[in-house]
Model the fold of this input.
Amino acid sequence: METLNYRYENGKRTLAKNPQIVGVVGSGNLEVLIESAPLDGACTIEIKTAAVGFGAIWEAVMHDFHERWLLADARISINDMGATPAVVSLRLDQAVQTMLEDAR
Amino acid sequence: MSSYLELSARERLQQLFDPGSFEEFLPPSERVVSPHLAQLNAPVAFDDGVAVGRARLNGEFVYTAAQEGGFMGGAVGEVHGAKLVGLLQRAVLDNAPAVVLLLETGGVRLHEANAGLIAVSEVMRALLDARAAGIPVIVLIGGSNGAFGGMGIVARCANVVVMSEEGRLAMSGPEVIETANGVEEFDARDRALVWRTTGGKHRYLLGDCQMMSADSVAAFRQAALDAIAACAGGPVELTLEALEREQQLLAERLARFGAMADPADIWNSIGMADAQRVSMLDADAFVAAAAAHRLGAP
Amino acid sequence: MQWPTLANALFPRGHTITERDDFLSGEAQVGDDVASATIAIIGTTGHAPIGVEIALAQATAILNTVRDHPGRAILILVDTQGQRLRHRDEMLGINSYMAHLGKCVELARRRGHKILALVYDQALSGGFITSGLMADACYALPDATIRVMGLPAMARITKVPEELLTELAKSNPVFAPGPENYLRMGGVRAIWDQAGGALATQLIEALNEPTAGDDRSALGLARGGRLLAQPVIAAVVAGGHVLAA
Done:
């Protein structure tokens, strides 16, 4: 297992109160837990993954995700079991969308 | 119409119960994960593979749990089992009108071995305690992993077992049996045989499943409502009379069918001829056809 | 220990236990000159695989006791290699036979019968879960083996390398097969000393212990073998957070 941590500072969009979770920790899949958290405006992402040694790819996917949504005071936690970058991006977007729908 | 089989545990909870009514106990944001998986380099899940809480069914709160078959096969580890026990205990304290368990599980989580085994046994005790407190326990089985192992035993401790044709209920999986005793004993790749042996229709005909449901969330929802209503007609707790009846059913089953090689022989014997035809019938047609032949208490 | 030797040690005042197809049943006298009682014995021997027949035989003996001898204590002697792995047993619904046995044990308990179990040789998984593990209290002899599955099969199914499991099984309570681990996790109440007349004495003490509800998760926490089960149960019940030890 490998643990990766990312923190982004220039976000703008804050989230609703209730945490959300999407996805399942099964082969080729992942779960994404997303919550509002007091982080001085930052968005933090912690990934625990069974696929070791893909740090550079994770970094790129997380960077793109942040650019897409620019979340602030957001804490994202991931348990991953070998999902492809495409599936990771999909779940992350699903997580944010679920948050936004819940807020409406 | 949503296929129950294809949904995740959380999707089943969202869609089966009244919209937006599910309140989770010890949600994933609490991050109560398995303490045992890391040493095996296995990933954890924030809910340890089961969501427990309460939700409204036609306006009334029932207590519920849904196992996620996609995580560790829905198998029961220390935390997962403790969540189920806590749910059943809380249902008693809160005097819940019913407990509805959406089971999809391989049984004891081998990665947690001893802790998982004790946990399943505690779930069994807690379920029977809930029944003793007058709370009906309904089990729904319709996921792709079925309900196996120790949880296949727990399922049959409930008041009512509802299954879809796609659901399976058994103890040992066909692969385990094939590995132990050879492919002649049980060919795990013979899907038709696997479903004849452990699937919803066979269990319904034997009397181990009391209600059939189509593979849709709406059908399972209705079956849960019907099951709860059916429990209102008699004692919910274990009684000597009911166990004597069950013992007789099981003794007769063994005497009548113990020498048969294939479940289709059993179906023939009870008057449900043509196994092929039985497999083709949809849930309602099957229930109608089975009515005059199936075993078990009405 | 062979069951006749065990029975003589447990019941110096006599017993009528017989064995048929690895199924044990009968009665035994326990007590001393001041007070003695007859208890019912059911169990298995020969590392019996538990199939539909033995599960039903045990359940029948339990209900017979409930019907014919109200309040009589029941001792379950456990020696099993686990559930029988046959297509026939699955076809007939062995999970139902086992559930039925568990329910009969529970009914007996509700009707005031004290139910104890003693693992005197092997106890595996499905052969044990609705007998020994449904008792008010489960005891074990020091040399007993209690486990969920053999390591090679476990390695195959979990895809965890057998070497890793073997290493963990040496000392990790979750995998190690000795009764000490079940003791620490709360699954076994005590390991009995089998020297001299100790077995008979320990049995009488166990029979005299008041019956509580299922307190195994609390035991597991107190003994340090299962640190999360009880706190998680408590958190779900109270609607709060887990206060881990």
Q: What stands out?
A: Residues 215-245 of chain C form one domain. The two ends of chain C are 38 Å apart (CA to CA). Chain C has two domains: 3-212, 215-245.
